[in-house]
Amino acid sequence: MQTPTSRPLLPEVARRVAAWCVVALLVAGVAAVGIWLCIVFQTAVTPVLLAILGTALLGPLNRRLLRMKVQKSLAAGLTVLAVLAFVGGATYIVVVALIETGDQIIASVRQAAADIAEHLGAAGTSLDDLAKNARALLEKFGGTAASGVISGLSVVGEVAATALLALLLIFFFLRDSDRAAEALRSLAPRSTGDTLEAMGRRAFEAVEGFMRGTTLVALVDAVLITIGLLILRVPGAVGLGALVFVTAYIPYLGAFLSGAVAILVAFADRGFVIALWALGVVLAVQVIEGNVLQPAIQSRTVQMHPAVVMLAITAGASVAGILGMLLAVPVTAAAFGVIGELRSRYGAEEGTSEEPAPE
Predict the structure, then answer these.
(1) Cβ within 8 Å of residue 86, ≥6 positions away
(2) Got the DSSP string for 142-190?
(3) Rg of the chain (C-alpha set)
(4) Interhelix angle for 253-288 vs 193-231, to 10°?
């Protein structure tokens, strides 16, 4: 006597949806635990992330020195000196430019807000109040972003300690970069060693491409906007160009903020017509960036939709303030690199497994 075949409790579609929901919950849970651990151990995590960004930015220089038969430790040391020269020089230029023209820029913004207040009433008054409290807002955001990094020390001490640790980590990352693949393989089972190594390489390549591309685009944007503002004789043009360079590491949002400040300064000191010309300069630079620089410079890196970038920046700001905004896009680029590697591997495997066997 044959027993009747039992039917599944749920149809095939429902089971697939349930399986994907389980996978999504597991991924979300792992991501939440990872973010929580990063927040708890942010004193150690922050230098590590900054070191990874620094290593990605000047990694090509270290590899070129190694091809020139320079000893590993010496090549890593020279690269760290290059990091010091680059970051120190850029910081010096930005700080000096902002110190010399910062008060003038803030005064111009306040004057522009006052002029707008005369025409817009209550809305303009709100802009005037915001401009008057610009320094307080910056100090508040800076204090919020810096608090909790190293408890009990001043902001200067926190930045110095984080920078020193990041430089040491950059040295070790560069010197021992050839051991990274072996370390990844040792952490994974034998069957997944190749996949984990490929994921790590793809993630680092995405971060490397983002850092180099963003730095070059930021430099070109800052130079072009500075030249345009100097031609228009806008006060504080060098400081505004430095602001453009710094904020370029926050995609879209940074360009909007720095451009708005430049236009307000031009409006306050040079009038409505010059402000329109300044707006034209900012828009022209953004058009050049979007249609020429970005496709040419970052065509080989992970391409992300602007909506994804804005969501990543918002999430980073909610987790770690200004530091989170700076790190959100590189981390997202690394995640997209890992996803792309997994898709290329397992997608290819599924495609080959579905092919009919030859008769």
Answers:
(1) 57, 58
(2) HHHHHTTSSTTS-HHHHHHHHHHHHHHHHHHHHHTGGGHHHHHHHHS-G
(3) 25
(4) 80
Reported for 146-150, long-range contacts at CB under 8 A and 24+ positions apart, including other chains, are 148/42, 149/42, 149/43, 149/46, 150/43
Q: Which of 156, 112, 143, 152 is nearest to 130 (CA)?
A: 112
First to last CA, the chain: 38
CA distance 199 to 104: 49
Instruction: Please check the confidence at residue 1 and state whether its pLDDT lies above 70.
Output: no
Which contacts (CB < 8 Å, 24+ apart) does range 80-88 have? 80/167, 80/170, 80/171, 80/174, 82/58, 83/54, 83/57, 83/58, 83/167, 83/170, 84/167, 86/57, 86/58, 87/54
Q: Using an 8 Å Cβ cutoff, are 265 and 108 in contact?
A: yes
Residue pair 162/150 in contact by the 8 Å Cβ criterion: yes
The rounded distance, in Å, linking the Cα atoms of 258 and 266 is 12
Please give the model's pTM, rounded to 2 decimal places.
0.66
Question: Can you tell me the mean pLDDT for 181-191?
Answer: 71
What phi and psi, each to the nearest 5 degrees, are found at residue 149?
A: -75, -55
Axis crossing angle, helix 134-146 with helix 155-175, rounded to the nearest 10: 50
Average pLDDT score over residue span 50-72: 84
Alpha-carbon gap, residue 319 to 359, rounded angstroms: 58
Question: What's the whole-number mean pLDDT along residues 251-276?
Answer: 80
Total Cβ atoms within 10 A of residue 186: 9
In 3D, which of 53, 345, 7, 323 has the Cα closest to residue 215?
Answer: 53
Among 355, 109, 90, which residue's Cα sits nearest to residue 235? Answer: 109
pLDDT tops 60 at residue 141: no
Residues 6+ apart with CB under 8 A from 237: 226, 229, 230
The 10 Å CB-count burial string (b at 16+, else e) for 140-172 is: eeeeebbeebbeeeeeeebeeebbebbbebbbe
- CB of 162 within 8 A of CB of 47? yes
